[in-house]
Specification:
Layout lengths: L7 H19 L6 H12 L4 E4 L6 H11 L4 E5 L6 H5 E6 L4 E6 L6 E5 L6 H4 L2 H7 L1 E4 L2 E4 L5 E6 L12 H4 L4 E3 L6 H9 L16 H11 L6 H15 L10 H17 L7 H12 L12 H18 L5
Parallel strand pairs: 1-8, 1-9, 2-5, 5-8
Antiparallel strand pairs: 3-4, 6-7
Helix pairs in contact: 1-2, 1-9, 2-11, 10-11, 10-12, 11-12, 12-13
Length: 324
């Protein structure tokens, strides 16, 4: 089954590029092949990722290695309670020499932006990311400025520490294509990390293996990956199931269904296919839909609530029959 829209050479080249990225990142991120795969699928789908995990498990390292492997500009923004929106987007500064304002770009003008501990910033500062994550541009003082291309926000947050944090609103969560979890490495992988020493993330030597232009080509190719009508209906059935599930406060949004489709296309391309199979949809359903759902009776423990939401989603995945 081949798509009439996607040339074979584009499919092969995209898979090779993603393979080179995976290999380069895997040299520095030990024992996390599945997380690397999901991050690359998110990149291919032109999406943003939220990494929700404990401190010190490699979240920043993942973002840095991805940026360096694709020769992209990388900026890290430490989100704090006193961070202002202009600290992120930039500000217009008056120049007395020509008596005019000039826009000074903020760190958001990059290819890969790490929004570290994003939930420590106030809602006002968090909201400055809504436009740029949706449209790749920033509006300041009536003027619109495009950010770099490709553009990806990798945000992190600690799901356990609530002191001094501001939970991300649903509108912000909906902007992330996926939510991932790093987890602790396996003992043999952690032993490799210990043997390598403990360099800072920005001291790691990461081989640059692709150009940003190649990433843009992959993102264009992903949109041409074919979905047979029954597979597209399967996507819709999964989304609809979340909307009728009584334990959820609300179901997955239309933006979420578009994200599930895009992530499925990206996974198919990642595995060398120019068409989506039901297993592609099922494989990305939890990271794409999990953070878009809230329980009607929320738990006081964020990690426990996450497990409960993913448990319900797993049940729905089993209940919705896959097309042949």
């Amino acid at each position: 089954m081949m798509s009439e829209f996607l040339p074979t050479d584009a499919l092969s080249e995209s898979q090779k590029i993603l393979g080179r990225l995976k290999e380069a990142m895997g040299r520095r991120i030990k024992g996390k092949e599945d997380v690397i795969d999901q991050a690359l699928i998110c990149l291919a789908a032109d999406g943003h990722v939220l990494i929700e995990d404990l401190p010190g498990v490699g979240k920043t390292t993942l973002a840095y290695c991805l940026a360096k492997a694709m020769r992209a500009d990388f900026k890290r923004i430490q989100f704090t309670s006193d961070l202002l929106p202009t600290d992120v987007t930039g500000v217009s500064i008056y120049d007395e020499r020509d008596r005019s304002f000039h826009f000074k770009r903020g760190p958001i003008f990059s290819n890969v932006v790490l929004a570290d501990e994003i939930n420590r910033a106030t809602p006002k500062t968090q909201s400055c990311l809504l436009e740029v994550m949706d449209h790749g541009k920033v509006s300041v003082d009536g003027d619109t400025h495009a950010v770099g291309t490709p553009f990806m926000v990798i945000a992190t947050q600690n799901p356990v520490d609530y002191e001094g944090t501001f939970p991300l609103p649903e509108s912000q969560m909906d902007r992330f294509l996926m939510r991932l979890q790093m987890g602790y490495p396996a003992p043999e992988s952690e032993l490799e990390i210990l043997n390598d020493g403990q360099p800072s993330y920005d001291e790691l030597e990461v081989t640059d293996v692709v150009d940003p232009e190649e990433i843009l080509s992959i993102q264009k190719t992903v949109r041409q990956v074919f979905l047979e009508p029954s597979v597209l209906e399967y996507v819709l059935k999964l989304v609809t199931a979340t909307r009728t599930e009584s334990e959820f406060k609300a179901g997955v949004s239309v933006r979420g269904s578009i994200a599930l489709k895009a992530a499925s296309q990206a996974r198919a391309l990642f595995h060398g296919r120019d068409f989506v199979v039901p297993d592609d949809v099922a494989a990305v359903a939890l990271p794409v839909m999990g953070h878009r759902l809230n329980l009607r009776r929320p738990s006081s423990d964020a990690m426990e609530e996450r497990r409960m939401v993913e448990g319900i989603l797993s049940r729905l995945l089993s209940a919705v029959v896959q097309p042949r």
